[in-house]
Amino acid sequence: MLQTGELELEGQFTWGSNYTFLARVGGQLEGVYKPVKGEQPLWDFPQETLAGREVAAYLLSEALGWQLVPPTVLRAEGPFGPGSLQYRVQHDPELHYFTFEDAVRQRLRPAAVFDLLANNADRKGGHILLGEDGHIWLIDHGICFHEEPKLRTVVWDFAGEPIPAELLDAMRGLQVKLRAGSPLAEQLAAYLSPAELDALRQRAAALLAQPVFPHPPEDERYMPWPPV
Length: 228
Description:
Blueprint: E1 7-13, E2 20-25, E3 29-35, H1 50-64, E4 72-75, E5 83-87, H2 102-105, H3 109-118, E6 128-130, E7 136-138, H4 165-177, H5 183-189, H6 194-209
Antiparallel strand pairs: 1-2, 2-3, 3-5, 4-5, 6-7
């Protein structure tokens, strides 16, 4: 339905820097529509690539088997032209990283590894949602996958800890899926440059070679702004 359902705009989210809309999809689902023409230019990311990065993040999440990113597609047509469309998770907006109980925060290790792999430059606390069924979801991945280190996140809870074995197993599987010519590599190539795809492979290999959650760097900014 996300791929083919008719989009009807119902409102606009006004707190972000890019134009983002609440949409009714096929008269049934709620979705978040981010048109390419509503993206604000960034000095360090190629123009008109943020919507595709949203889709790439979903593909990465699915390839790992972690189901962290809500279903996301790139629509060739929409009320304001091409853009990403993501299933809107029903959640309490007052619940996010900074208000989670400790037991919920302890479940964020897969999210932390995901951001290391995706090189997420903007993991705000409000980008981590707790679904009504208790499932943890991650949203807003427009500035991920840069070939240069860009990690900025609020989640440093596990710095210095070994990455759990089950997460390493998923990354080993990801390495196989990312091989040149594979279906996943071909899918990602529609949204990422060859250099960005190679950098993703290198980040996976580096984490497997040194399977420890990193500490925040001392010589560069490592937190997004604003943090929520």
